[in-house]
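Final report, closing paragraph on structural work. Over the funding period we assembled a curated collection of sequence-structure pairs, and we close with a single example.
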Amino acid sequence: MLNDFKKWLGNEKKDPTLFDIIMYGSSVKGKTLPEDIDLLVIFREGSLKERLQKLQELKKKIKTDKKIDIKSILWEELFDPTFFARTGVLLEGISIFDGKTIAQKLGFQGNVLFVYSLKEKTHTQKVKFNYVLSGRNGAGMVKKLDGKHLAPGVIMIPIRHALEFEDVLKLH
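Its predicted structure, as stored:
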């Protein structure tokens, strides 16, 4: 999906008024069938009228049947505590221009800690669950999703794979 948006909007990187176009929300968290696609256009400068006009131009370039929720903001407003989507954009947002997360561009990575207990499981269920997480003859889900075991019952997974790992936990 990101590649499609790169095709449609990649040339916008040349626009000096744009800092970036960010995809965020369920479409980048690993949800299999996101209901909509959230985009944030980050402007370096421009009046509200100019920015709204640019958003209309961008919408015309997007060729998808999915619902597109597109917002715009000035770069300095991205860090304003009153910007509701700030945390989601900073931690999980992915640049359409270069495929990097905003977090990477700013020098950090967003992760989710998963804490689980196997107390109620039988020995066989515990063994099977550990095979799913760590693998038996190959890589387990933790490694496949770029995660790390931090302690017994505690796993850290990058935000981009959080929903996928959550599904694994629900299945087992």
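Residues 48-61 form the longest helix (14 residues). The chain has two domains: 2-106, 111-171. We thank the funder for supporting this effort.
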